Amino acid sequence: MKLIFLVLGLILTLGLASAHHRNRHSHGNYDNNNYNNYHNGGEIEVQEVAVESQIVVEDYSYHPYQCGPYNRCKLGEVCQRIGDHCQCLPIPSYKDICLSVKQIGVWQDGQRGGKTYSQWDITIENHSNKNIREIFIGTDYTFRLRDNSLNSLWNMVMLPKGILALPSVQNSINAHASYTFGFIIDGPQSPNLHILSVLFQ
Question: Are 106 and 17 members of one domain?
């Protein structure tokens, strides 16, 4: 009788030990899976952030205006649109429109702490046989309006990202005609201006 109880006790002990081992093994796999899932998820998240950052960088390296439904010009090119036809043309060889730059004067303003300012006239010369309906001119850090005020800019309006455009009262520039706008900026140096996009009538 004692032998029977001894055998039953041994079987019960072995069963509990086996179950405990399986339980530990199962929890060990669960933890490893969670660890792997966490790290795999972390890698995916990092990749998504990297791609998103790359998209932002690429966006800044491209021309700000779409040229046609599928094309975007590169920096250093003019997006020329004539009706439904659009093409990207390199600025150095673009002769249909020119920007003529003239310095009107340079002075130091005692009422503004002796800061140096300069006044400029920019003439948009249309050498083409078509009327200009829209033109967008890009600027950069060299274009700092006096007092950071639009009162220091006339005959043009400023769009986001410092882009200059014709005002609503000036709906076109005729073929072989010109249009002049002006501004007052910080410093004596000529600002960098470049034609981004032109729409001909």
Answer: no
